[in-house]
């Protein structure tokens, strides 16, 4: 009886191993869409809106440029976007809760250029890397 149970258990393990190894998907490659693609601009707009909504001090950040864009297509959840944004300060304080598109950019001599790296998945910013000349911070939203 012990031999039969051991054999059945071994057969079950072998079958599950064979099924899992054959079901492994080939990873999809990273795509390089244009920075002015509508989906990229919408993802950048969403990221900037969420970043500005979470800030409690300083000025509303406005988009200066998008670069280093990568897209990782997902079967079920859509695409995950990786990109870097250059942003600048506006004349609107973050407590005003104005959208970045409704604010005037500050003159270049009054602002600090900031570099953000984002991982966008679905409609939620899942990871933000904030890099300024003075510091490097990792935020998880």
Q: Supply the helix-strand structural class.
A: alpha+beta
What's the mean pLDDT score? 70
* Number of contiguous helices: 2
The general outline is: elongated
Low-confidence stretches: 121-141
Rg, nearest Å: 23 Å
Strand order across the largest sheet = 1-2-3-4-5
For the record, the CATH class is: Alpha Beta
If you consult CATH, what is the topology? Answer: Nuclear Transport Factor 2, Chain: A
What portion of residues belong to β-strands? 35-45%
CATH architecture: Roll
Pfam families: Cystatin (PF00031)
Keywords: Disulfide bond, Glycoprotein, Signal
GO molecular function: cysteine-type endopeptidase inhibitor activity; metalloendopeptidase inhibitor activity
Protein name: Cystatin fetuin-B-type domain-containing protein
Short key terms for the protein model shown above:
elongated, single chain, alpha+beta, 5 strands, 141 residues, Nuclear Transport Factor 2, Chain: A, five-stranded antiparallel β-sheet
Q: Could you provide a short overview of the structure?
A:
The protein has two helices and five strands, in the order ααβββββ. It is α+β, with helices and mostly antiparallel strands and 141 residues long.
């Amino acid at each position: 009886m012990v031999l039969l149970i051991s054999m059945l258990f071994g057969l079950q393990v072998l079958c599950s191993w064979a099924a899992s190894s054959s079901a492994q998907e080939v990873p999809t490659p990273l795509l390089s869409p244009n920075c002015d693609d509508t989906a990229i601009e919408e993802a950048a707009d969403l990221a900037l809106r969420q970043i500005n909504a979470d800030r409690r001090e300083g000025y509303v950040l406005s988009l200066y440029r998008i670069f280093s864009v990568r897209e990782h297509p997902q079967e079920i959840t859509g695409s995950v976007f990786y990109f870097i944004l250059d942003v600048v300060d506006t004349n609107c304080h973050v407590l005003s809760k104005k959208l970045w598109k409704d604010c005037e950019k500050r003159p270049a001599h009054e602002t600090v250029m900031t570099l953000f790296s984002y991982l966008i998945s679905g409609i939620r910013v899942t990871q933000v890397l904030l890099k300024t000349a003075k510091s490097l911070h990792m935020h998880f939203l």
